[in-house]
């Protein structure tokens, strides 16, 4: 998952990375992000607990964290720190050995200019996608259907893409370039099966955006095939997508 590759690269982990490790925790943190925490009466502090050999162990996320209450004003810092905690808490000695071996094979200066998505493609290779299966298990929302002009253009653009760009499109929309061995019918979102989705959104001046928890790409109603193709390629190469409930 994205957190694994970010950890290998020494990059910071974010809330979106929690999705692939634990959908329930991710959903809870999204609720914290969207609600006014001062109204929820959760009594959270900047600390976390986990069970180790049957015993609860408390870890402070910042110095003195167990005595610092999480409020609406500081919740973004809490969400960032607790996300890092959940993703790093189970970092094992085996993973540390993997990192040592990884950097023995690939000198760190070579990795300075790639991100986690590029590293995934380098390490896992580019999967072959069945375009018919992909189309068959795609749903459309907010005014789009299989016969919409923009949808016809979208699939034409995908058909013409190089394999690496197809992989980037899957990454952009779902958070990973890998799909289940059984195909797009078993594509998962943050908690359950979630089909690839294209939703009508925005204006032609906008770039496509993604919601990886829902395997959804928001596609503006572009006025020409050339405009759609160009902006789709810009989005998958220069944008990272984001989660939105």
TrEMBL record:
PANTHER family: E3 UBIQUITIN-PROTEIN LIGASE SU(DX), HECT DOMAIN UBIQUITIN-PROTEIN LIGASE. Residues 1-245 form the HECT domain. The keyword Cell membrane does not apply. It is an enzyme of class 2 (transferase). Pathway: Protein modification; protein ubiquitination. The active site is at residue 213. This is HECT-type E3 ubiquitin transferase. The keyword DNA-binding does not apply. Pfam families: HECT. Keywords: Repeat, Transferase, Ubl conjugation pathway. InterPro entries: E3_ubiq-protein_ligase (IPR050409), HECT_dom (IPR000569), Hect_E3_ubiquitin_ligase (IPR035983). It catalyses: S-ubiquitinyl-[E2 ubiquitin-conjugating enzyme]-L-cysteine + [acceptor protein]-L-lysine = [E2 ubiquitin-conjugating enzyme]-L-cysteine + N(6)-ubiquitinyl-[acceptor protein]-L-lysine. It comes from the Eukaryota. Its EC number is 2.3.2.26.
